[in-house]
Amino acid sequence: TAAFGALLRCFPCQRFCGGGAVPPGALPAAGPPPRRHLPPRTFRSYLPRSHRTYSCVHCRAHLARHEELISKSFQGSHGRAYLFNSVVNVGCGPAEQRLLLTGLHSVADIFCQSCKTTLGWKYEQAFESSQKYKEGKFIIEMSHMVKENGWD
C-alpha cells in the first residue's frame, strides 16, 4: 500500500497537502457520482402554441408550421415524406447530386439541430424544368415528425 500511496500524489493542489503521498482514508469514499441537474433543452426557434406544428419525434424540437406544408405526397428514403416551404431548428449538410424518383437533383441532408437525427433533405437545385419549384424547399420524412398543438 505504500507504493500505491506514493502514486496518489496531489500535484495540482500542492499548497493544500504539500504534494506528498495521500494517506489511506484521506480520499472520499467512492460512491455514485453527484447528480447533475441538466437545463431544459432549448431550441433556436419556438413556433407559436396557437399554430398546428410538426416537431421532431425524437426530441420534440419544433420543425415546421402546418401553413408551410406544400405537399404530403412525397417519398423519402425510408417511407412517406412531406414537402415544406420552410423549416426551423435544422442543420444542413453538404450538397450532393442524387438521382431521385423525379430525376437528378442537387440535395443536402438536413438534421435536427437538437438531437442530430437526419430528417430528410433540402432541394438545392433541380436539373429538369418541371422540378424547379422544389428548389429551396425541404423534405421531412413522416417517421421523424409528430404533430403538435391543435390537431383534431
Automatic annotation (TrEMBL):
Record has Metal-binding as a keyword: yes
Keyword set, alphabetical order: Metal-binding, Zinc
Origin superkingdom: Eukaryota
InterPro entries membership: Yippee (IPR034751), Yippee/Mis18/Cereblon (IPR004910), Yippee_fam (IPR039058)
Start and end residues of each Yippee domain: 52-149
GO molecular function, one term: metal ion binding
Pfam families to which the protein is assigned, alphabetical: Yippee-Mis18
Family membership noted in the UniProt record: Belongs to the yippee family.
UniProt protein name: Protein yippee-like
Organism annotation: Ramphastos sulfuratus
Gene of this entry: Ypel4
